[in-house]
From TrEMBL, chain A:
It holds the Pfam family Ferritin_2. It comes from Hymenobacter mellowenesis. Residues 215-235 are annotated as: Disordered. This is Ferritin-like domain-containing protein. InterPro entries: Ferritin-like_SF (IPR009078). It comes from the Bacteria.
TrEMBL record, chain B:
Residues 237-262 are annotated as: Disordered. InterPro entries: Ferritin-like_SF. SUPFAM superfamilies: Ferritin-like. The lineage of its organism: Bacteria, Pseudomonadati, Bacteroidota, Cytophagia, Cytophagales. This is Ferritin-like domain-containing protein. It holds the Pfam family Ferritin_2.
Amino acid sequence: MSDNLQPRGSDDASFAQPLYTPIKRRSFFMYAGATAGATALVMAGCSKDNDPVTSDNLINVGSGDTGVLNYAYALEQLEAGFYTRLRTGTYYTGLGSASAEKQILDDLYYHEVIHREFFKAAITSGRISDSLTPDFSKIDFNSRTSVLGTAMAFEDLGVAAYNGAGQYISSPLYLTLAGKIVSVEARHAAIIRDLVMEGSFVGNDVVTISSANNSASAGGAGSSGSSQERSKTPSEVVAVANTFLAEGSKLNVSGLK
Amino acid sequence: MNFFQIISEIEKVDPEVYDRLDSRRSIFKHMTGLGQKLTAAAVPLALGAIFNKAYAQTPVGATVNDVLNFALSLEYLESYFYNAGQASTTLQSGLSATNKAALELIRIDEANHVTFLRGVLGTAAIAAPTTATFDFTGGKGSAGGPFADVFTNPATYLAVAQSLEDTGVRAYKGGAALLMSNKTVLTAALNIHSVEARHASRLRAMRRAGPNNNAASQGVPVAPYNAAPKSWISGTDNGGASPTQTAPIYGAGNNTNAPTNVTFDAESNTTQGGTNLTGLPNTTGLSAAAFAVAITEAFDEALDVTTVKTIARTFVVNGSTFLA
């Protein structure tokens, strides 16, 4: 199943290879209790369970609880960088000081900077770089559509990321802390989505209202009509996040399992 | 594809796989039968069904079931509330078109959560309550409580709705650490938790813009946030929509049975993971006081089961054991 979510390249020959890679615990839980996932188990049995490509220029977030915290820290750096940068664009600078949009974007900037600084203080050893370099070249900070569309993508991605990573956390404290942050991200996502399109605070693209979750992290729980967030695995999340990070700051999350 | 190779691989990470399969009785016998009955192309689907039986119904333990039934109780409370609101033409006539649509989305979500949790719990699920179990006026059965016009006055309705959703967010957050033994269930709970937070955010926007406004997202919050809140909780929101009844929703919980290192603080908490965040570098341009408020907004707080039950029983009639 994970193969379907990553660029395949020219490794079709892997279908013919024997199953020599042990099914990892992470993958295993994704199959447990799964309606779609259990069927996918057979597919995994047919092909190699590829690890994400590891190139020299990626930042490895590590493993265990520190790995999850680093993963969150990286995403918060990205979000905080975005909300900091948008403050110099003409969309933001043109907003009325008492307008709803200005107040919302101000609060999101404060919240995300606080999240970033919190992780920086909380990860006392094994912390990744404090200065990941973003790549916002695809964003037009003078355009409301571009800024709010990107904010929506980041907030929805953040929610999906925290939810999908919860299962890799072993400490009740860190799981609860992640929960304290993710619900604020969800509050952000809902209001930004409503700014983009009134009434889209829950939509079938982010919540399983009328179709099932096809993410590798769903574990079969996000069945059609269960109204659950469409959480994403770390590898699914960084496939998106890395497009907003410069060379040398892109993430490797293969240790999260 | 080699079925026994797959089982062998699973055994490496789950030594109990044979027991799981065996405890569902005769699974290998089923396989033999399947092999005779099915074409090769159909085997993956049939095999998927067998693994579902082996894992989907794995006993999750009393604690996990208790937490899920607690969640189910709260979902019933919410679901019946939105059903009653949808049935009131007086109420609906006071809501804008976009707000009516939003409330219908929320109503569907809560009904879906009830159905989903019942499915996960199976025979362990609590009995469905009757509608007479609840008095959403907060009158404990008198129908004349502090929210007496809840189903005729949109402002009251949205105030109660926000209170229920904010409570739900804190409840799921507090329950997460109790579900760590079952990753599938934990992920599902987290995926419900964030949906409740999306609901809370929307309801808060509807309240600050006004029930009959079609542009809820354009409303501006007004301190101290009782009537026109932000989409997130600022400090304790001055006690919430109706402080006499709702202040506990934003207050501290009971740490008696808290998981290791977890505390149930008030929403005005500024200490996370043992670090007082007011000491973080402040590059935002905010004053120290405003920075501290932003810290409280940036983190929602968890609440323990006992405290949540006490809050939720505001809407349960006297004499009922629901959520007791």
